[in-house]
Design a protein that fits this description.
By secondary structure, this protein is mostly helical. It contains six helices and four strands, in the order H-E-E-H-H-H-H-E-E-H.
């Protein structure tokens, strides 16, 4: 890989990583997903990876897992799930009027 291509790859990677770490860039209205898409597009457009190499680099099992988690969270947050199920999946429960995390509550019962 030529030096200019390597430098472009590092620059694109670091810029994308910075946006992902910060969460979003308000001036450009780009969030984490947009930054990842833009970074991947720039990697292909700059010639660092061919389109075929970019397709091979995608792990579709991870993409499916992320989409499923996002759908489940959206369902719980928007009231389509009964409250007890939503609370148990988010780790919240009520005991004696106080909030407890189930793992801590179970550990205290053994002490």
């Amino acid at each position: 890989m030529p030096e200019t291509t390597t430098a472009a790859a590092w620059l694109i990677f670091l810029a994308t990583y910075a946006v992902v770490a910060l969460g979003k860039i308000p001036v450009y209205r780009i969030d984490r997903a947009g930054a990842a898409l833009l970074g991947g597009s720039l990697i292909v457009a700059s010639g660092v990876l061919s389109l075929e190499e970019a397709y091979q680099a995608v792990d579709f099992n991870t993409i499916a897992l992320l989409l499923a988690r996002r759908a489940a969270r959206h369902t719980c947050e928007h009231g389509k799930t009964p409250a007890p199920i939503a609370k148990s999946t988010t780790g919240e429960s009520q005991r004696n009027g106080r909030q407890h995390i189930p793992a801590i509550r179970n550990r205290q019962s053994f002490v």
